[in-house]
Amino acid sequence: MTSLAELMDYDEVIEKYDPVLGLEVHVELHTNTKMFCGCANEFGGEPNTNTCPTCLGLPGSLPVVNGKAVESAIRIGLALNCEIAEWCRFARKNYFYPDMPKNFQTSQYDEPIAFNGWLDVTLDDGEIIRVEIERAHMEEDTGKSLHVGGATGRIHGAEHSLLDYNRAGVPLIEIVTKMIPGTGKRAPEVARAYVTALRDLLKALDVSDVRMDQGSLRCDANVSLSPKTTGALGTRTETKNVNSLRSVERAVRFEMTRQAAVLESGGSVTQETRHFDESSGSTSPGRKKETAEDYRYFPEPDLVPIAPSREWVEELRGTLPELPWERRARIQKEWNLTDEVLRDLVNANALDLIIATVEAGAKPDEARSWWVSYLAQQANSKGVELPDLAITPAQVARVIELVNSGTLTNKLAREVVNGVLEGEGSADDVIEKRGLKVVSDDSALEKAVDEALAAQPDVAQKIRDGKVQAAGAIVGAVMKATKGQADAARVREIVLARCS
Amino acid sequence: MTNDLIHATAAELAAKIHSGEISSVEVTQAHLDRIAETDGKVNAFLHVDTEGALAQARKVDEDVKAGKVVSPLAGVPLALKDVMTTEGVPTTVGSKILEGWLPPYDATVTRKLKEAGVVILGKTNMDEFAMGSSTENSAYGPTHNPWDLERIPGGSGGGSSAALAAHQAPLAIGTDTGGSIRQPGAVTGTVGVKPTYGGVSRYGLVAFSSSLDQAGPCARTVLDAALLHEIIAGYDEMDSTSINAPVPPVVAAAREGQNGDLSGLRVGVVTQFSGEGYQQGVLRSFEAAVSQLKELGAEIADVSCPSFDYALPAYYLIAPSECSSNLARFDAMRYGLRVGDDGTRSTEEVMSLTREAGFGPEVKRRIMIGTYALSSGYYDAYYGSAQKVRTLITQDFAKAFENFDVLISPTTPTTAFKIGERANDPMAMYKADLCTIPANLAGTPAMSVPSGLSDEDGMPVGLQIMAPALQDHRMYASPRRTRPRVAGLGVRRCEHQEGQGLPRPRRRRGGSRGRVLGLQGRP
């Protein structure tokens, strides 16, 4: 474990060094079947049930490329402004590991399907940074090892390991950036913003579940420091096991402060794979290898080359949906939002929710108001991100509709929302269960008004004398008597009518 | 009766079974008896599936009785090389590392055979992982050549070729990575065909070298080989390298070829395959074959394919490279042998001990060569250069086929050598595949047919016929009368030999009917 003394103060790091980033993101495609066989591609499931001779690497088995995965890879490449290879192959990456059934991974090596692209990334303050994409290539996922009996759950010290090959052969796209220099003190933020932008893009393309917590989106962060004095590139480390957007930022920041401390003490950074620890926010070295790994790549002889026709590529370009940044630009124009408001909505993760609420029938202003005020407060008090609140945009739109139709008052609407958040079902279910409907029966209201007037004869007299503002006291009393389930405006009308 | 059954061709057996004259059960039992009687000496089979064979035979007999249309070889027994997976039936690939493994699935070839009603007698011996030219590298002991039990039956498919020569089966399946169908065919006086790469599915063929491996038919006549070829060939969506094209009309070609007219057939004699290292008796037999082809009307000329000289070294980089990767999966984790798992050792140690114990010396040698050849810094010099040679060889073939319909050569430089003779000299062993390797590197079809006996040692000699990709039928015979190609070539040679008692060693050798020479010692 790295102690604090071994870290350099962040501001000092920035004073002395330029951080250089490189980000590798693995995306599990949510195709129906695996990359090279017909097994179901599903998260979870009883271990070793989604397997066949091919994904178990049984002797004699052969791979066949999943066409849908190639299509997804090309669409991702196009959305990342990449060139699409006219001809490319798979290769074998050879190394022994028990969760890899063939002891080689079928991957692309020097002939990726997509290359030379870019992605514009918006930072919290609205600044846009263009991240250049080196390549996006196809490969297969490995199985999962569960190390039993050790203290850490890692292979060190484990008594035995269990293997689940359900994930073996799941299609992966690896997206690799070029070196990202010049981000200075914002390097950690840039790393997070890039992964966020990529996640939103992949979601819009509908190619992956993009769940970092389930491993369908995984990020490896490469970090090195270049001394400002010399400008020479530093030795990089690759940090794995970065399982949330926040962790991406923390891992980069930690590595910067750690590497700077190593350099400052006269040491040199070791080129190695490091492991991010969520709880401590620190990185630690992976298992030391005695020799440099040589993967002995060579073209996969069991597969034929992939040569996507230009017609197909253009056809796929036509299927690209409105991409997140295009959508934002359109919404900003349509709703007439200032840059600042738009940015706040994006940063609060509210924009997509508001758009979805509008698509479900609400007006933009109403939808915005719910998400940035009441719902944002609820998320805040529950300590979750806005999109993780247990309410859907459609449910919010329904609540707004009920308010507009007079079925709910704003106060009742908040109670309904609370009910939905508590898991009591849909808005209508909550209204039913909690009996929250506005009392719209005039005779009931008239009775309540008469009772209130009788209870406060002096106030009643004032109203009759023309002091209309005095009606407020009667309305208040009626609202209290009906436990807030009356429409105050209607009550007021009845009060005035009774006293005229 | 038994003698008739075990000496008949597959075509003859099929006709009689389908007409109801004899039953498949009788035929199958006759071959099972023959195996029981002779395999103690030959060791062609690693596993005999008596029950499975008889069950399949009964089913075919029922179908015939019921008047159902059955496929051309339904009811005929076959010996399957132990490199093809068979559901629930042991598949060892001649290796200790897969001892006891019961595959949960059938290879496509196995499935097609079963669907065609072919009776699979069992699994035949082979060099471990198909690496070898003598079947001496089998972890389960060598197979003996029925012509002379002290000699090798060729390899890697020595079990399949010996089973044919010993009349244990009229049909067999082999796989050919550098000659493993053709060279055993040549040294046992049988027919062996390596189809165009991609012509027969590799799904379920336990890989040695993926870009070279190709399954094919083995038989005692060219027509039988053609009948089997059509059953196992064809596009398979489970094999990406399988060719999505119609199966070449090999049966029609073989039948057509029986007219024996080779007028106008342009035959190129590959000049690279002669000279030093070639046994004189083999060359004389080859010359005799060339003369005979001329008599039949073929136009014969020499053709030089200079890059063929580099085929052997290129092969011994490509095949080991691919095998070093293909064989990585044998690591004790999921199936097969597991050594040293006593609770004290790490995964890596168990993997290492298992591979140490489970692989034989030749397999280890090739894994090491391949691992080295693919290493960073060596890749371009070795694997990269070998792939360039491969391109040159393909170009040499293409150029030659501009002027010739087929190319011919001896199948292998010598007749069957003695068991143990080359065991400690890998280079001498590798040279057995000198003439057969180019067709694997180019992916083109090639066949070995018996061309007679060497006058020095009385052992069979093979004639290799090579054709362009997807023109497999040219080797069997031309389907067009107007322009006969290899018409009759294979068939005539083969039947001609049969007329003189070949490949029925018993008659040629003057033995009594049913006596397979070599089993009783040579006269």
UniProtKB/TrEMBL annotation, chain A:
Coiled coil spans: none
InterPro entries: Asn/Gln-tRNA_amidoTrfase_suB/E, Asn/Gln-tRNA_Trfase_suB/E_cat, Asn/Gln_amidotransferase, Asn/Gln_tRNA_amidoTrase-B-like, GatB, GatB_Yqey_C_2, Gln_synth/guanido_kin_cat_dom
Cited SMART domains: GatB_Yqey
Catalytic activity: L-aspartyl-tRNA(Asn) + L-glutamine + ATP + H2O = L-asparaginyl-tRNA(Asn) + L-glutamate + ADP + phosphate + 2 H(+); L-glutamyl-tRNA(Gln) + L-glutamine + ATP + H2O = L-glutaminyl-tRNA(Gln) + L-glutamate + ADP + phosphate + H(+)
EC number: 6.3.5.-
Residues in Asn/Gln amidotransferase domain copies: 352-499
Protein origin, superkingdom: Bacteria
Region (Disordered): 263-293
Keywords, alphabetical: ATP-binding, Ligase, Nucleotide-binding, Protein biosynthesis
Gene3D superfamilies, sorted: 1.10.10.410
Enzyme class at the top of the EC tree: ligase
NCBIfam families to which the protein is assigned, alphabetical: gatB, PRK05477.1-2, PRK05477.1-3, PRK05477.1-4
Family: Belongs to the GatB/GatE family. GatB subfamily.
Protein role: Allows the formation of correctly charged Asn-tRNA(Asn) or Gln-tRNA(Gln) through the transamidation of misacylated Asp-tRNA(Asn) or Glu-tRNA(Gln) in organisms which lack either or both of asparaginyl-tRNA or glutaminyl-tRNA synthetases. The reaction takes place in the presence of glutamine and ATP through an activated phospho-Asp-tRNA(Asn) or phospho-Glu-tRNA(Gln).
Subunit text: Heterotrimer of A, B and C subunits.
Name of the protein: Aspartyl/glutamyl-tRNA(Asn/Gln) amidotransferase subunit B
Species assigned in the record: Lentzea indica
Lineage, highest ranks first: Bacteria, Bacillati, Actinomycetota, Actinomycetes, Pseudonocardiales
